Amino acid sequence: CVIESEIQAWIDRKSVKKLVKSLLSEDEEEVKVVGLLSGFETRVSRTPC
User: What is the span of the domain harbouring residue 26?
Assistant: First the structure.
């Protein structure tokens, strides 16, 4: 479970960086940003292993 947690933490960091970049960009479409945010919300609401 430790390795899975480390991998998921790495994926989460990459996801947050992408989300923040999209939120700060004036060129990003709102639909894309909402999709990224929704996906991340789903991920963090899951129960850890």
Answer: 12-45
The 10s digit of each residue's pLDDT in 1-23 is: 899 999 999 999 998 998 888 88
Residue ranges of alpha helices (H) inside 1-49 are: 2-24, 30-45
- Other Cβ atoms less than 10 A from the Cβ of 36: the count is 19
Residues whose CB is less than 8 angstroms from the CB of residue 32 and which lie 6 or more positions away in sequence, other chains included: 22
Q: Is the pTM of this model over 0.85?
A: no
In a domain, residue 3? The reply is no
**Total domains, the chain:** 1
Residue 1 resides in a domain: no
